[in-house]
Specification:
Helices cover 50% and strands 16% of the residues. The strands form 3 sheets. Strands 1, 2, 3, 4, 5, 6, 7, 8, 9, 10, 11, 13 and 14 form a 13-stranded mixed sheet that branches. Strands 12, 17, 18, 19, 20, 21, 22, 23 and 24 form a 9-stranded mixed sheet that branches. The chain has a 4-stranded antiparallel sheet with strand order 16-25-15-26. Strand 9 and strand 10 (170-178) form a beta hairpin. Helix 9 (276-303) packs parallel to helix 21 (655-689) and helix 21 (655-689) packs parallel to helix 25 (750-776). The two termini are 41 Å apart.
Amino acid sequence: MFFNYLKLALRNLSRQKAFSFINIFGLALGLASSLVIMLWVKDELSFDRFHTKADRTYRLVSHVGDLKAAISPAPFAPAIQELSGDVQHATRVYRIQSAMLQVGDKKFEEKAGYWAEPSFFEVFDFRLLQGDAKTTLKEPTGIVISEAMAVKYFGTTDAIGKTIRKDKDEDFVVTGILAQAPGNSHLRFDFLLPWVKEAVTNDDIRANNWGNFDFYTFITFDRPKDETFIADFEEKLSELFASNEKRVPAKFKLQPITDIHLHSNFMADVPGHGNFQYVAVLSIIAIFIIVIGCINFMNLSTARSARRAKEVGLRKVAGAVRGQLIKQFLGESLVISIASLIIAIVAVIVLLPQVNLLVGKQLRIDFKDPFFLIAAGGITIVTGILSGLYPAFILSGFAPAKVLKKDVRSGVGGSIFRNVLVVSQFVISIVLLVSTTVVYQQLRYVQSKDLGYDKENLIYVNLHGNMWNEIHKWQAAFNAEPLTANASFANALPTDLVSGTGNFTWPGKDPAFKPIFATIFVDEKFTNVYNVEIISGRNFNHNLIGDSTNFLFNETAIKIMGFTNESALGQEIELWGTKGHIVGVVRDFNFKPLRQNVEPMMLPANRWGGTVVVKAEPGKTGETIAAMERVWSANETLYPFSYGFIDQDLENLYRGEKQVGTLFTFFAGLAILISCLGLYGLSAFIAEQRTREIGIRKALGASVLNILYLLNTRFVLPVLIAMIIAAPLAWFTMDKWLSGFAYHVNFNWALVAIAGCAALAISLLTVSYESYKAARINPVKTLRSE
């Protein structure tokens, strides 16, 4: 029986080639799109789940008023170990902003490293190709490097015991070789240095400073804990902090490490996070695409029901019961779905390399993965059944006495349902068109918004090691070169600011009010180089000795402190035991992605090195870089010259948004293309059904334009209905998405009308070809048999 149904299905598909192509190709496009989205979503949801202790490991995050930070004070980890017997491990890592590593003549500036405690490998399952995970970070002079770094520096992964020099004068011995880290880890690094070495020189670690927030702290419990336990433990953490630090009223929460990638919006977080909204939106698009493919199948199947009415009638007269016919039609639907799946898998395999380049991942189809097999098989079966269920019941319900007399109109009864499906397609198309436009507008807004400083033509070079102590030498060197004279020295870049403090006071400060301010140490050229406006007071002046301990603040910080821009001037600030005064207030500028509001910031005078930023004259970027390299080479022989651009760093902050925006646009376009395929097929069948009517109208004098108007106007009403339904759906979807940005465009209701007109134009263009063909047929041919 099964093979008989299969033979009938294949025979019907071969007889209806256009119908078969539209359904198989449309479903294949839908399934291919859904498979790609499924692979991307699976990867996004899999972050940090490869760690065996992932279900009981958390990151400590800080809440100070409205500010939330991924970092915490240095003394927390050892104190947590003593707080509860339920804590199995508490480990810290400290991000290395930049380090110059050298082996022989090979020198590289490395930016992907951490200082890590020995318990790091007890918490995280990063695999070592060589070395003992229990001891590799215990040696003060040890270094753990990735296999890629080992090959880069030594030409082989057999590098245990070999020496790497860091920042001119520190030698480290390789104690471990890391295997290629999984791409779905929120912690991404190329090397690890031992915590015990950093503890010797880091003031916060040596002094057990509870007031500075600079470290990532991770906690692993002995077993998974319920929500009640976690809430109680968080309260204990806050009490522990309050007993050690009276000036900062911080609360502390535990964030599951499996939530970090998709559910983080914290100050000073590690870069490269995703966004759960994007996962949800693309998942919905995948469902939409499958639904559109199913709608196409149902529309075309019910539209061509008259063609199969005689077959149904003859089979019923021959003794077939309705259940057998339903199985046959569902079988045909499943054959189409399976054929579409095969084509879709081939298409995905071919296109995945380009998709991976676009999204920056290593997505692949793993035929041994039970998840993939179940998901792909499940989608195919569900799609086949949903597509064929309604047509099967419609076709199998024809009365043989009527259909054999060619009276099938009463048996079809599907025109209302087809109209509902067409409206549904237009609703989805309009929502996708509106959403794509809003996403594009927001990305354009993000890229063009005035950040409060001039990001163009800013070139930076990082100073290393002891160069920080030679800031005056470097200032003189850059000032001596005309093209580099407009240079500012700061301890960090606004695009990579990870430090903040609550360890400061001001006159009239409420002891119970202890906010955390972002902190960046700047010199007097900072405002000029970045074109940051001083709205009250003055800039730093290197000729005034007292300015070495003075401050600038941004507007938001001044408001939080309870001053006006004018009254703040001259107020005494004590930071880390050193007193100074506010000499100026700068206009707020965005130093975080536009998903976040401008945070309070203090800008103390810079007495060290850090990063030098040069403002190049328009059109002289290349010449300025060459001049910077000359200055560098004349004063530094060990560290290689390397530079970056502020505007490129800003672009990288929104790389995720741009990638998802591109995916969104691509899949939205595919959904509309699949809709057009269905409309094209439907228009062909409608034109075929009305062939006799068209012939009579032409015989009576109707023109081609009259016929086109007759056939195409039936799609106008569905578009109008779809616009009414799509408007609130599009607004709700995009309002929810835009709410994730602190700064965003406003939803424009005119977009719904524009998208509706676009959908109507696309649909009319799609159906006009078949309508034109029908309108051009000679009425003599269509009426010859009458």
